[in-house]
Amino acid sequence: GIPIALLLKQLQNENPAVHQSAIQKIVNLGPKKTLPYLIHAFKKNKDPQVRGLILDAIQKMDIYPTQEILSVFIEGLKDENPYVSKSALHVLQKMNVLALPALRLILNNPKEDSSVRSRSAAVIGNIGGLPAIEALTQALQNKNNTPIHKAVSEALIDIGPESKSALSLLIQTS
Questions:
Q1: CA dist 167 to 44, 101, 108, 172, 174, Å?
Q2: Segment 115-135, tens digit of pLDDT
Q3: Which of 39, 102, 107, 126 could form a disulfide with 120 if both were Cys (CB 3.0 to 4.6 A apart)?
Q4: How is the chain classified by DSSP, letter by letter?
Q5: What values do phi and psi take at 66, rounded to 5?
Q6: Is 116:75 a contact under the CB 8 Å cutoff?
Q7: Cα–Cα–Cα angle for 64, 55, 12, nearest 5°?
Q8: Quick one: pLDDT at residue 42?
Q9: pLDDT > 70: what percent of the chain?
């Protein structure tokens, strides 16, 4: 096979087809061998196409989402490019409850960009369940979160009837 170092070098090529081919070959080498290289490539590469492809590749690897993997997707969620942030969003939703603590931190961090915080609220809403309702309710009660109240409210509405008590809190505070 082609050495992994050569495949990683191909990620810097101008041609998107070369990126896709290189990432596919890296993935085919197996997650244990290639995951650290993909994570490193994601952090170093600024090309949104490559970053999105790497997120998709990691997601397809069917591996337990460690803290390191989760941090890569959180970084992807913060990416300004919609392709990268949507790829990350999709994966975080699949990670479900495992992603909640990290999403909660983003949601309640006033230094974080409000669009990223709003995306976090949406993912939490899609995860659903009691832990998600608790996270969103806490976000509503935090005075620093006024810029994202609309996103938090929409996330609670998406959860459905089980979030009724949190929604009544929203009506009282607005």
A1: 42, 22, 18, 9, 11
A2: 889 999 999 999 999 999 999
A3: 107
A4: ---HHHHHHHTTSS-HHHHHHHHHHHHHT-HHHHHHHHHHHHHH---HHHHHHHHHHHHHT-----HHHHHHHHHHHT-SSHHHHHHHHHHHHHHGGGGHHHHHHHHT-TTS-HHHHHHHHHHHHHH-HHHHHHHHHHHHH-GGGGGGHHHHHHHHHHH-GGGHHHHHHHHHH-
A5: -75, 175
A6: no
A7: 135
A8: 92
A9: 97
Residue 55 has φ and ψ, to the nearest 5°, of -60, -45
Report d(CA 24, CA 117) in Å as an integer. Answer: 32
> What is the distance between the alpha carbons of residues 127 and 149, in angstroms, rounded to a whole number?
18
Residue 50 contacts residue 57 (beta carbons within 8 Å): no
Question: For residue 95, what are its two tokens?
Answer: 């990670």
Q: Which amino acid is at 109?
A: N
Q: What is the rounded CA–CA span in Å between residue 14 and residue 11?
A: 8
Alpha carbon distance 17, 49 (integer Å):
10
The tokens describing 78, both together, are 């913060």
